[in-house]
Amino acid sequence: MATILLHDTRVPAPNIKADLVMTVGPSDNIFRKLHELAAQIEQQCLSFAPGWTHQLQVHCPCNENGLQLGSGLTADNISKAFAILRFKTGSILISGCGAAAIYRMGNNGLLMCKRLAASAYSNVTASGGFTLHQLTATWNALGKLTALQEHDVNGALVNGIPHPGHTSIEYFKHTCHQKASQPGTPVRFSFSTIMAQVKVYALQVWQLSLRCALVKA
Q1: Which end of the chain is more exposed for a tag (fewer CB within 10 A), N or C?
Q2: 208 class by beta-carbon count within 10 Å (0-12 exposed, 13-18 middle, 19+ buried)
């Protein structure tokens, strides 16, 4: 697993240990810079681990005009810009700005992050802005919103809001247990019980993998 840092010079570089660093100036063409980054990932990182294990950390300002990363990224051009990084990263963390914020007269941050995730085929995590309790959202590689988390000003987790499919999963688990407890022939009861447990364990593994993905992100 490699940590890749992409940061704009308008903000200080974060104090993190990165295997690959790409610096972007305000006047740089972001499309050209991302092509350079893709080539460097192939040369320096893919020899150590598969691309989906890499994490890309993006540090840049953000306002109603979108991500201030080089020449700029918005919901309109981010898909085209990050398509070059498809399969080269497993997760993208946008920190230091409210990338997921929706501006009434400007960039739609939620749509931008959704399109970024689908374009780069990576989990994307971004915050909705700086408030007393800031909300962080995560999209999966298909561009589906999978989790919402609330953090305090120190970055500590205050509350985790279940992802949109949580209710369906809980209902499915309840149904499995209900079917397993229904009377029937010994053979049918045994088979139903085993299948119900397998489904429940599969769901638990899925939920654990989601948590691990969020921690890595």
Answers
A1: N
A2: exposed
Q: Is the pLDDT of residue 132 over 70?
A: no
Orientation angle between helical segments 166-181 and 186-216, nearest 10 degrees = 160
Q: Smallest Cα–Cα separation from 119: which of 99, 88, 143, 147?
A: 143
Query: Residue 204 CA to chain centroid, in angstroms?
Result: 20
Give the integer Cα–Cα distance in Å for 45 and 56. 12
Beta bridge partners of 189: none
What SS3 state is found at 214? helix
Instruction: Delimit the domains of the chain by residue range.
Output: 3-163, 166-211
Per-residue pLDDT tens over the stretch 2-55: 999 999 999 988 888 999 999 999 999 999 999 999 999 998 887 766 777 899
Distance CA 203, CA 165 (A): 12
91: β partners: 55, 123
Nearest-angstrom CA–CA distance, 96 and 100: 12
